[in-house]
Fold these 3 entries.
Entry 1:
Amino acid sequence: MQKPNYGKMLDDKLAELEKSGEKPRLMLHACCAPCSSHTLLFLYGHFDITVYFCNPNIAPEEEYIYRKNELKRLIAELGLDVELIDEDYDPAPFYELAKGLEDLPERGERCQRCIAYRLRKTGKKARELGCDFFTTTLTISPHKDCAFINECGIKTAEECGVAYLCSDFKKHDGYKHSIELSRQYGLYRQNYCGCVYSRHRAENKE
């Protein structure tokens, strides 16, 4: 069975929108400024974008605030007409879903539960605000399971009643472009995904 080409699916959707002249409302879940940089520029012009910063996995609180502020700065410096909605810092939901999975590596069940939680929150927020689509910047990361993210997004769309925009933002040299943009704008590039467990693994590697 041939694997879905999520990058082509996104290209086809953008071509469809360009042909129709439509500009739907998109709720874009953002994990950090570097991952958002290429993603925002790639999608801007095709959608009326609302960025949603909802990442209860990030620890400590100072890290959460710093990443959120970097995202705000990026949007301002790019000069994009994009709304940013951010949630108050509340790591309790993450620690609840991570119970018993603390020692698993990235891409394991803990990571999957975390992604699923954030996508559900994004889909719910998209429905609440009347958006036409929702998606996430997470597929730009080579450390994340792109197929799982998209499958989870499609499932979430069925639950929340808002269409999920399939993606693989690594395509078109997206990850490389995000690194170039990070240098250009002096963005903070963290050395761990966000949670305390990924931070400990990164520190042990160093």
Entry 2:
Amino acid sequence: MITDKDDSMIYFSELLKNDSKYSKTCKNLTEILDSYSIEYHFLPGTNDIWARDYMPIQVSVDKFIEYRFDPDYLQAVKWRYLKTHPDIGCDAIKLKTVKTDIILDGGNIIKSHDKVILTDKAVKENMKKYTEQELVQELKRLFEVEKVILIPWDKNEPYGHADGMIRFVDDYNVVVNGYFDDYDEAFKNKFFSVLDDNGIRYQKLIYSVKNPDIDRNWAYINYLQTKDILLLPGLGIEEDRQAMEQFENLFPDYAKRKRIIQVDVSPLVAEGGALNCISWTICNA
């Protein structure tokens, strides 16, 4: 399966450059990408900036899985206008997809070459048509992976996305948010037991600062990664430096090339997302 580390092209919603509240963030991002000659484009016809959620999952160079983007948090009438139909984005860039009736969010899909991690919220959203076992088997078939690993849904995060909880460093190692140590024992034991049972080694992001910003320092794990660069959220808080140090240790190949860059994403984090959320990355060769 194509992973973030294989990707070579980045897409953002057009809203990121057209909405004035994101203009500074967009300018910072595009200036960095231009300086490293990294290709990026903007998707037309989108209704929110969170491109990761509604765009397809790439399995191989020419296979993209287009799922049903119909999450529970957009069911209320007052939020339906924010729903982006994947067909519109895919048609705009002339992308052919393989369609599935499974309800998913791209922000809930964490990929390695042979594994996918997602929260068990996906089981709840698809229970009318699939049992848990049937869902796992179908996802394995669609994504062409050996394992589909279900981690518990962190109910403090209503969207049920895994990309604010855990990311693959390589096929056998992940980085997780260290704040799970403060969760109740039942959740913590289940979360880490799932990783242990599947042979996944993990490293926690830990911050030792005088005044931890517990409302925002979760966002570092929501970084944007391609084969050429790793963009790390910057928040203008004490934890920024320690986050950079930890990511330089986690990704030494990027650090040696000076390709870990911190970007101020405060306006995004205020709305519950960060760099992985606003980007859709693909391998185009």
Entry 3:
Amino acid sequence: MKEFRVKVADYAVARGDATIVTIGLGSCVAIVLHDRAAQVAGLAHVLLPSESMSRDRSNPAKFPSTAVPLLLGEMRKLGARGPLWAKLVGGASMFQKLLANGTNMGERNLDATRIALGAAGVPILAEDVGGDYGRSVYLDVRSGRVLVRSLKRGDLEL
């Protein structure tokens, strides 16, 4: 089985017998998309809620509004035709004491991700979001099964 590792502001798509993994989600959000019939999946590890928050806007995997269309396009190249669904993981508030003006980057990332998925017409099937702890994601491409691991809460299957 192939394993694809997704770093921060990165993505991967695969078909069939593969796993896509991203480690250490805090306020970032993992956007998981899956086409069950085609056994095609994608995962993006988005960093910021909008392009206006970054000087470097060249990486489409960095923001939900560009990561969702990127994933959809790459998945179509591998045979995805739909229907597709999404699962979201992350969006934690990791540094509550540092939030001087009440800005919660995790919540902002989640809001932007939900808007991007809504615009693309992709329903959200499951979420493991919020809280104050990190998570790692293990996506089985064939089945669409998502295993979320955290030190604080253990394993959870979405």
